[in-house]
Amino acid sequence: MLKSSALIVCLSVAALYGCGKPSAKDSFARAEEEEKRARKTVESATAPQDLHAVYQSTVEAFEKVIADHPEDELAEAALFRIANIRNNDTKEPALAIDMYKRYVQLYPNGKQTPLSMFIIGYLYNNELHNLDSAASAYKRFLEKYPDNEMAMSAQYELSTLGKTPDELLPKTQEAEKPAPKKTRRKTT
Q1: Do 118 and 55 fall within a single domain?
Q2: Is 121 domain-assigned?
Q3: pLDDT in tens, 50-103
Q4: Which of 83, 92, 112, 152 has the highest count of CB atoms within 10 angstroms of its CB?
Q5: Residue 42 placed within a domain
Q6: Is 83 within a domain?
Q7: CA distance 144 to 139
Q8: Can you tell me the distance from the alpha carbon of 154 to that of 141, in angstroms, rounded to the nearest whole number?
Q9: Is the pLDDT assigned to residue 15 strictly greater than 50?
Q10: Same domain, yes or no, for 85 and 132?
């Protein structure tokens, strides 16, 4: 009887505290520490680094927040951080797009959903040069967020897809040419 009571108490405590899982806040803090460590490694490196490998433990720590606490608001923040790491730190646009798409799918009304949708189009256009996917992404963004502060930028990006910088810049060379000098005719 004593053994079964101890087992019940032990199981109750385990259930109450999530079977020993750290809280979302603690897990997120650990992931942020991993991110700081990775940044420090990159900043102090004297030779080129495999950025994917350097940030892998950071990504895994943020993924753990998502897996262990999917309903917590920190899971949303963790997924957005992973997308940003893949975009800005590891320079892996295809993986970043996957993470931003995952964010949009899991958090259709999320705080960062408009930005995520815009970045998807931007990465397709400017990093992967996939104009069809970029156009689709920008159009979806504009349909869902026509009044968003980034709507004008999305419209500009959409209207300039596939154009070279020379096609976008005004013809400054002709404007900079001096006008021909008029010569006076001598009248006698």
Answers
A1: no
A2: yes
A3: 999 999 999 999 999 999 999 999 999 999 999 999 999 999 999 999 999 999
A4: 83
A5: yes
A6: yes
A7: 9
A8: 8
A9: no
A10: no
Tokens of 86: 């893949």
| Token pair for 144 | 């869902």
Which ranges constitute the DSSP H helices of 45-130?
Answer: 51-68, 73-84, 93-106, 113-126
Rounded-to-integer distance, Cα 83 and Cα 99, Å: 5
In a domain, 52, yes or no: yes
Length of the chain: 188
* Residue 25 and residue 65 share a domain: yes
Q: Cα dihedral sign for 105, 108, 110, 116?
A: positive
Residues 88 and 29 in one domain: yes
Place of tokens 């495999």: 50
Same domain, 70 and 118: no
Structural domain harbouring 45: 21-92
Q: Confidence class of residue 20 from pLDDT cuts 50, 70 and 90?
A: confident
Q: Which residues contact 28 (CB under 8 A, 6 or more apart)?
A: 62, 65, 74, 77, 78
Tell me how many domains the chain contains.
2
Q: Do residue 88 and residue 127 come from a single domain?
A: no
Q: Which long-range contacts (CB under 8 A, 24 or more apart) does 152-159 make?
A: 153/118, 154/118, 154/121, 157/121, 157/122, 157/125, 158/121
Strands (E), the chain: none
